[in-house]
Design a protein that fits this description.
Largest sheet: 2 strands, antiparallel
Order of helices and strands: HEHHHHEH
Number of helices: 6
InterPro entries: Phage_holin_4_2
Protein name: Phage holin family protein
Number of domains: 1
Number of strands: 2
Strand order of the largest sheet: 1-2
Keywords: Membrane, Transmembrane, Transmembrane helix
Distance between the termini: 23 Å
Organism: Uliginosibacterium aquaticum
C-alpha cells in the first residue's frame, strides 16, 4: 500500500516539475503515473549498470557525472512515455534535479528513511 501511495505522490511531483522548468510538459495525470513508474524502473534497472560503466569518469568528476546519468534517464523516460515531453538535455538536467528534490520531499513526508526506500526514483 505504501508503494502505491509513493507512486501516486511521485506522479503528483512530476506534475509540478513543468511549473518550475518551462520546457517540460506533462499532458495528464495518467501520463505522469506512467512516467513515474518508468523513471522508477529505469533507476532500478539501468542506472546501476550505467554508474558501474561510467565509474572512471564519475571518479574524475568527483561524482558530478551522476547528474548527467540522471538527466539522460529522465530524458529517456520522456521518449518512452507519450504525454511526457522534455525539451532537451538541459531541460532534462533541471527537470531531474527538481524531480529528485520533490521525490525526496515525498519520502520525507511519508516518514521513510533512505534505507527504507525500495526502487523508487533516485533522480
Amino acid at each position: 500500500m505504501m508503494t502505491l501511495l509513493r507512486w501516486a505522490l511521485n506522479a503528483v511531483a512530476l506534475m509540478l516539475v513543468p511549473e518550475l522548468v518551462s520546457s517540460i510538459h506533462v499532458s495528464s495525470y495518467t501520463a505522469a503515473l506512467i512516467a513515474a513508474i518508468i523513471i522508477g524502473l529505469l533507476n532500478a534497472l539501468v542506472r546501476p549498470i550505467l554508474i558501474v560503466l561510467t565509474l572512471p569518469i564519475t571518479a574524475l568528476t568527483l561524482g558530478f557525472f551522476i547528474l548527467v546519468i540522471n538527466a539522460l534517464l529522465f530524458w529517456l523516460a520522456s521518449e518512452l512515455v507519450g504525454g511526457f515531453q522534455v525539451g532537451g538535455f538541459w531541460s532534462a538536467m533541471w527537470g531531474a534535479l527538481v524531480y529528485s528534490l520533490l521525490t525526496w520531499l515525498v519520502s520525507l513526508a511519508l516518514g521513510e528513511k533512505p534505507s527504507q526506500r525500495s526502487s523508487g526514483p533516485r533522480l
